[in-house]
Amino acid sequence: MSGHLSKGQLTALAEECVSKSEKTSFEAHMRECSKCREEARENGEVRRRLLQHATRLDQFSVEDEVRSSIADKSRVAETAVTPFKRPKGFWSNLIGGRTFRFAAGAAALFVVVAVAGVFFYTPSQAWTLAESIQAIQGKRGVYFSGSFTVNGERLDCEMWIRGKQGEPRVQDMVLRGKNGITMWVRENATYFYNPAEFAVYTDDAQTAGFTHWPGAEFLELLRRVTRNPEIDYRIDLFGRRRLIVFKARLVDAGGAKSFILEFDPASKLLVRLKWWQNLDWSGDPAFEADTVSYLDSPPDSLFEVDLPGYVVYRERDVSIAPEMIGLLRAPSFGLEQPGLSEVEASRKIVEEIFAAEISWDLARFRRLAPVATLWDDEQMKAVLGGVDGQELVVQLVEVGEVRRRGRSPLGPLFVVPVVVRQKDGKLYEHKLIVQIRQGGGPEFSCVVYGPYGAPYPVQ
Amino acid sequence: MINAIREAELILTDQEHIERCLNGEADQFGFLVIRYQRAVIAYLRGRMRYRDRAQEAAQETFVRAYFNLAKLKKRESFLSWLVGIARHVACEADRREQRERGVSAAYAELSPGVAKAGPALEEDLALEAALSSLPPKLRDVVLLRFYSGCSCLEVSQLLELPVGTVTKRLSRAYDLIRKRIQK
Fold this sequence. Notes:
The complex is a heterodimer.
Chain A: H1 7-14, H2 20-32, H3 34-56, H4 63-76, H5 90-94, H6 110-121, H7 129-136, E1 141-150, E2 153-163, E3 170-177, E4 182-186, E5 189-194, E6 199-203, H8 216-223, E7 227-236, E8 241-252, E9 255-263, E10 270-276, E11 287-295, E12 312-315, H9 325-329, E13 335-336, H10 342-358, H11 362-368, H12 377-385, E14 393-399, E15 404-408, E16 411-422, E17 427-438, E18 444-451, E19 456-457
Parallel strand pairs in A: 6-12
Antiparallel strand pairs in A: 1-2, 1-11, 2-3, 3-4, 4-5, 5-6, 7-8, 8-9, 9-10, 10-11, 13-18, 14-16, 15-16, 16-17, 17-18, 17-19
Helix pairs in contact in A: 1-3, 6-8, 10-11
Chain B: H1 2-11, H2 14-22, H3 28-47, H4 54-67, H5 78-101, H6 103-116, H7 119-132, H8 136-147, H9 152-159, H10 163-182
Helix pairs in contact in B: 2-3, 3-4, 3-5, 3-7, 3-8, 4-5, 5-6, 7-10, 8-10, 9-10
């Protein structure tokens, strides 16, 4: 080596950012060169002082102060300039407003899908659908204890669900995460409380959880939308019992889903479940319940939610499943409506889709709502009409004003509420999400994404 | 379990934490606070006339950063952006403090503090002053390397620079710091 080591080389040596051969060469030079040794010593002194100083600053942690200060400011201004678009992650991965009718196999409903599958696809089983319905009858509540995995982090939670007597709908639901996150459904609204944001995000529809109480009608409904389930047995060593293992998968508006459910042949009831957001049961389950218990009559106190007085309530932006963007973008779907504004076009396409349902024009229905291409005619019949076809829409009573908005990479999203009359004569309010597709110019087209929450009975 | 998760989270890049935070995971901001609090405090202590207020200013810096996170365009430059906020906060805090204390009282309060400082504190004062006077490119490398616990390789990844550039900047920073603290 000629000359001296550069300052950069000396620092690289001290920081061990040199190759093995460089290290040997530099060290050999250092042994011979007092000037470089002196330079290295001086550098080392500065490094030592910096490291010591940094250690002394450990006492000045501001983490807690920052957290509480952010909380204070958030409380002061309800419309605080928050960088958070919506409480994604936990909730969006859980159910995230994608449930329901078109998506009869939506995430929230998988338990019942599987129950139906077991009974209808395995006639060799000793138990029948009727027996299972019998087992569930008289029970109006179910308890799940398990965990969600979000971004690799496991979040323990408990969930209670209560069915409404004489109706397939869920009356109440509350889910409590061990990290303080709470979600609950009350009347026709869904609430997401995230303590990290000191806020409750609201949807004015039932957008989360089990939208139907797992009763007989619903078992039959879901039987029709699952295909090719796999049935197996497993010995539960802890419980010293044999369990029936049911595996199935489906695709709906919320994307791909696969699940495993375990039933106790003695009680005919579900005892464990796992659910993945893919079609091959791979990776960590998005949700895993290691305890499932049915309750005869869950008390009101289970569904009470106590929140700190300072939380603020915010409307949650409407969103759609990212994996559905490709389908929604396809030009073969949707409708161009020149001369109408985006809001007018949204209301118009909703009128059109109900007209298609009423006239049973499934081709047109699928062209307006591409998610419907995921099901064949039989499945569509079950999805739209319910078990006995009584939920089919026979009259569009009223198209309401756009109440909720959001945005996807394709353009604005609008929620259009409608009131319809079903074949059984009952009036229900439906809300549909319409995707406006903007092409960069004044022209646009629109397409129906799917339902915003569950239909709600109109008094 | 919790610690393991926290350690795993700390391995994420600034961009990943910011992305998650903007997507609603508010707690992710906590990891950025953990990563940079020492760096910000070190900078502020050297920058502020009233260094005993550096902790409060650091708190304010992070709170402002949190509420303005969506405005950050170059997410890979989070530290530089943060230090920019800290600089503003420091100026504001000093002006406010000076107004409140009054010029003469401020000098009277500041001087004894320095006079009473022990050798370690005096060393710190000089080092902090030297740190805050470094050119931004050198300062960021030093803050990341020594106050955010990054290796040179990690600094190079965070700043998207070759490792050789990082070590060169460090050596230039050592020179400047040495000259400054020997004054």
